[in-house]
């Protein structure tokens, strides 16, 4: 069949809209919270370090439960887990809106994290069910574009809401988006293909998974912020014991929560590796640059937001293009090219003149965004399509987990480098390390060219 003649019927378009609305909601919720933290710290009369738990609690719950919900999606259906997640997220958003204390808001954010984990664990698995395999790249491209648009719009939306009203309205916007996704998804989202054999959910593995990833993230955060070394050592010891038990148990499972079975597929394992390293590089740059712009270049918060915007805007343009190119070009080559452009953009920021004009920063940020967009879509397509259809949930969960691990590692390294270097050298140190990670991701991506491309492959 000619790929250019493949078209969606309206029902399929609407099913995609349900997934994209949920993605938009979860991304917006993350970006607007970062902007709102100073306001929340002031209103609740807590320290900034305490206020950060509004964000950290949410992210920690997602990391600890993402793979477990992906496994439940493989067993009970991605559609069911997705709709349950939306329902939890909308209810928790209402609870956030009605919160009257810091700890009430934090508890509501924890519940919100469970809902977000449900959605994130199966969203790419649903996209795989909705799109024909020949044009899955286009679906992933649209997905990446919506993420980039939401990330770019988040700070502006948050600023506008906080300028016009209280922080409570930041959570109100989730409710209509969530309800629309819930109604459309309930009517139109597809069910999983019939399974030859249904496996049982491994509750012990789910607990071990939560403890392993929780201890890993918490240990990295503690190390980054110079917490008590004895306490960190205890956490690492527990992580080694529980993590070893968890992995050994997964090796014996037919459909493990941590998809070690999928990691035996070379192109899947390479794609997960390049995903972790690429997101590490991205966070090294994105977290350190605002400090550099404020403390060294002396831009204000509004100007910094505008200077960072070309990055997601460039991703908006290149992600859908990469989604079409992956139908004709090997994803390993596209990913390698994308990381080469990304590394070039990071290097251009590294050699930024001492007193740059704004336009001199803008084109460099755009170059980074172009490279990352060219890489991300083909990489996501490879991760999802290289797994058997019945294991799409596991692949989707690993895709999200790789992103979270990369982002956590990146922010941890930023905190570590900020302690090691004086203020004027911190951003350059972070950018130099980001360049190395980007080059590493590009090399790993190029190695995938030795494997057959899974794009369009049917199981």
From TrEMBL:
The domain of life is Bacteria
Q: Where is the Major facilitator superfamily (MFS) profile domain?
A: 15-452
Q: Which residues cross the membrane?
A: 12-37, 49-69, 81-104, 110-130, 142-163, 169-189, 201-219, 231-247, 267-292, 304-326, 333-352, 398-418, 430-449
Per its record, how is this protein called by name? Drug:H+ antiporter-2 (14 Spanner) (DHA2) family drug resistance MFS transporter
Identify the species of origin.
Answer: Phocaeicola massiliensis B84634 = Timone 84634 = DSM 17679 = JCM 13223
NCBIfam families named in the record: efflux_EmrB
What keywords tag this UniProt record? Cell membrane, Membrane, Transmembrane, Transmembrane helix, Transport
Give the record's family classification. Belongs to the major facilitator superfamily. EmrB family.
């Amino acid at each position: 069949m000619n790929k250019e003649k493949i078209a969606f019927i309206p029902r399929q378009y609407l099913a995609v809209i349900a997934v994209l609305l949920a993605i938009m909601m979860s991304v917006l919720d993350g970006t607007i919270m970062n902007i709102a933290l100073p306001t929340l710290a002031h209103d609740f009369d807590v320290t900034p370090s305490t206020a950060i738990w509004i964000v950290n609690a949410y992210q920690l719950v997602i990391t600890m439960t993402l793979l477990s919900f992906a496994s439940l999606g493989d067993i009970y259906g991605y559609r069911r887990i997705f709709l349950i997640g939306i329902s939890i997220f909308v209810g928790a958003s209402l609870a956030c809106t009605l919160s009257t204390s810091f700890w009430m808001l934090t508890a509501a954010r924890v519940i919100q994290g469970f809902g977000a984990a449900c959605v994130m664990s199966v969203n790419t698995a649903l996209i795989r069910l909705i799109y024909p395999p020949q044009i899955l790249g286009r679906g992933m491209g649209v997905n990446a574009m919506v993420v980039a648009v939401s990330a770019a719009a988040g700070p502006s939306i948050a600023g506008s809401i906080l300028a016009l009203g209280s922080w409570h309205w930041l959570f109100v916007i989730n409710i209509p988006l969530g309800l629309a996704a819930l109604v459309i998804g309930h009517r139109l989202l597809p069910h999983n293909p019939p399974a030859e054999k249904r496996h049982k959910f491994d509750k012990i593995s789910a607990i071990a998974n939560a403890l392993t990833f929780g201890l890993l993230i918490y240990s990295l955060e503690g190390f980054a912020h110079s917490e008590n070394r004895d306490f960190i050592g205890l956490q690492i010891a527990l992580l080694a014991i529980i993590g070893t038990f968890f992995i050994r148990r997964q090796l014996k499972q037919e459909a493990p929560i941590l998809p070690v079975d999928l990691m035996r597929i070379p192109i899947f394992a390479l794609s997960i590796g390049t995903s972790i390293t690429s997101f590490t590089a991205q966070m090294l740059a994105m977290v350190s640059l605002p400090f550099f712009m404020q403390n060294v270049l002396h831009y204000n918060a509004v100007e910094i937001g505008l200077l960072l915007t070309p990055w997601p805007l460039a991703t908006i343009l290149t992600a859908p293009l990469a989604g079409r190119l992956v139908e004709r070009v090997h994803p390993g080559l596209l990913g390698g090219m994308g990381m080469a452009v990304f590394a070039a953009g990071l290097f251009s920021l590294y050699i930024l003149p001492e007193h740059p004009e704004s336009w001199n920063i803008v084109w460099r940020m755009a170059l980074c965004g172009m490279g990352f967009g060219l890489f991300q879509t083909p990489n996501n397509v490879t991760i999802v399509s290289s797994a058997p259809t019945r294991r799409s949930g596991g692949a989707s969960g690993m895709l999200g987990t790789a992103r979270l691990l990369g982002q956590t590692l990146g922010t941890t390294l930023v905190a570590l480098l900020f302690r090691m270097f004086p203020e004027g050298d911190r951003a350059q140190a972070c950018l130099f390390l980001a360049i190395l990670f980007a080059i590493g991701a590009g090399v790993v991506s190029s190695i995938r060219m030795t494997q057959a491309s899974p794009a369009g492959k049917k199981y």
